[in-house]
Amino acid sequence: MIHKSTKIACSVMTLLLSCIAVPNLHAQGAYNPSAPKPLQLTTAKSVFISNNTAAPLANSDKVFDEIYAGVKQLNRFTVLASPEAADLILEFSLITTGDNDQFVTLRILDGKTRIVLWSVSDSGQTKAIYGSNGKKNQHDVLDNIFDYLQIITTPKQTN
């Protein structure tokens, strides 16, 4: 049978060892907010929009029109009609969930290598599908994606 004082001593030792080890793990750094992002994200001038949304047939054009308009409103890229000359390919996909929300993923691919440089997802409702019948005061899920796209692709200002 282990004495109560032995259990306490073991707990204290474990706590002390974890306090010593944690700074070393943190220093090796899983998360660094200033980590460099792919240069192509901030230097790109042109994009091709890939419609991989698989939106319901009746809404496919509406969803793509909303995506196209959102990218154009960023005033950040020239939208090309062909992927061959584009600096980036913006591949949007959409899945409608059981609660009538959409799960939207944006994959940003290098136009030349087709390597995925960045990916982001969010869920909510799209104006294109639900219009004013959606949840009141809910921000459009595509607007969230466009906001993030603007942040991730805007070149940093240097002083």
Name the CATH superfamily classification of the largest domain. Answer: ABC-type transport auxiliary lipoprotein component
Structural class: alpha/beta
Distance between the termini: 66 Å
CATH class of the largest domain: Alpha Beta
Number of domains: 2
Q: Radius of gyration, Cα only, in angstroms?
A: 23 Å
Average pLDDT works out at: 76
Give the helix tally. 5
Give the DSSP E fraction (strand runs of 2 or more residues).
15-25%
How many β-strand runs?
5
The amount of helix comes to: 25-40%
Secondary-structure element string: HHEHEEEEHH
Annotated CATH architecture of the largest domain: 3-Layer(aba) Sandwich
What global shape is seen?
globular
What is the makeup of the main sheet? 5 strands, mixed
CATH topology tier name of the largest domain = Rossmann fold
Strand order across the largest sheet: 2-1-3-4-5
Low-confidence blocks of residues: 6-29
Summary of the model, kept short:
This is DUF4174 domain-containing protein. The protein has helices at residues 4-28, 39-43, 60-73, 127-130, 141-153, and strands spanning 46-51, 78-80, 88-96, 102-110, 116-124. It has 159 residues and is α/β, with parallel strands linked by helices.
Which structural traits does this protein have?
5 helices, signal, 159 residues, Rossmann fold, DUF4174 domain-containing protein, 5 strands, 2 domains, five-stranded mixed beta sheet, alpha/beta
